[in-house]
Amino acid sequence: MKNILHSAVACVVLCLIGPVLLAQKPTASGTLTVGATVEASMSLTVASDNLGITLFSGAGTATAAMKFGTINAYATLPDYVSRTVGANSFTVSTPVDVLVVKANTNSGSYTLTAALNSADSTNTWALNATAITASPAIVKTTGEYGRASMYTVKVTIPSSNTTGSLNNTINFVATAN
């Protein structure tokens, strides 16, 4: 009887703790140490201005493109393209927006420069009142981060220019002050 009692107790104990013993599974652990160097950064984007022609590609990116369309000294121009006519030349212009934003820097403002990608020995280029050549020119000394600034792109074409196309790229560089 004693053996039966011991066997019964053993069965009850096994029934009660058996599932617990079976539920315990082997485990392993590890760690992952994460490190990084936080670096200051800036972003520059070019966009259509409400008063200017619509950029035909890349609006809101750092590589936008604009077409003045067919330009001339006297006939109708595309919408949002302005013109002034002088004695020996005419100038076409339209505004664009440039936006500079920053991250992880204490800089309070930026300096913006612009340069033509290739020298133009025939036509004269400007942003607002600043002449633009193949050498960088300062167009803004204390730019405000996070706020788009309007720049009027101006190209002056002399009356002696008889070529059929006008192509160049304006390279912008924003440098934290």
Could you characterize the architecture of this molecule?
- The protein has 177 residues and is mainly beta.
- It has one domain: Immunoglobulin-like, CATH 2.60.40.
- Helix content is 12%, strand content 37%.
- The chain has one helix and nine strands, in the order H-E-E-E-E-E-E-E-E-E.
- It has one helix spanning 2-23, and strands at residues 41-48, 82-85, 89-103, 110-116, 124-127, 130-132, 137-143, 149-158, 170-176.
- The strands form two sheets. Strands 1, 2, 3, 5, 6 and 8 form a six-stranded antiparallel β-sheet that branches.
- It is elongated, with a radius of gyration of 35 Å.
Which CATH top level class fits?
Mainly Beta
Biggest sheet details: 6 strands, antiparallel
Query: Helix-strand pattern, N to C?
Result: HEEEEEEEEE
List the total number of helices: 1
Fraction of helical residues: 10-25%
- Structural category is mainly beta
Mean pLDDT: 90
Compute the gyration radius: what is it? 35 Å
Percentage of residues in strands: 35-45%
* CATH architecture designation: Sandwich
Query: Stretches where pLDDT falls below 50 for ≥5 residues?
Result: none
Topology, number of strands: 9
CATH topology: Immunoglobulin-like
* Shape field: elongated
Number of domains: 1
Cα(first) to Cα(last) distance is 95 Å
